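Researcher: Here's a chain I'd like modeled. Treat it as a single chain, no partners, no ligands.
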Amino acid sequence: MRDDDSGTDAVDARLAARLAALRAERGWSLGELAERSGVSRSTLSRAERAETSPTAAVLNRLCAVYGRTMSRLLSEVEAEPALLVRAAEQPVWEDRPAGFVRRSVSPPHAGLRGELVEGRLTAGADIAYDRPPVPGLEQHVWVLEGALEITAQDVEHHLAAGDCLRMRVWGPTRFRCAAPEGARYALAVVLP
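Model: Modeled as a single isolated chain. Structure tokens:
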């Protein structure tokens, strides 16, 4: 997750502390969390000590175990959300190895069920989520630039700029960018 280059370490440290707190609230050992999430003990341990920033796929698995959307988890390590979210204040998180940048345009807020995310994938990026963070999560993916291939419920959808895919997520999903210029999309997320 990135606020800016100077705030990156602080955000990663807050994320690490929140992940450790969520596990402690449930009374789970690292081994139990590894079993439930399918993420190795060593990866979990390094993430909880802020030795590494977890990938999108790892965060997604942890969110599924903790019953949270990724945005909700990331918002828990940010300051109290404001009603007006200025562009400069929108939290940005990166999974550089995967070629994925995620801007929380309208982060989760108490009393609201929806959120708005801007996603950017570099050419060739391929991100697979093995489960939704919350079963039945409603998503609307609107491609703003480039093209995306999204697989949901074993059906592959090819989206060009301007196309919108609406779905409830119950199982694995995959976002791929075959466009040479990359892709930029808006993702509206609504809790069931």
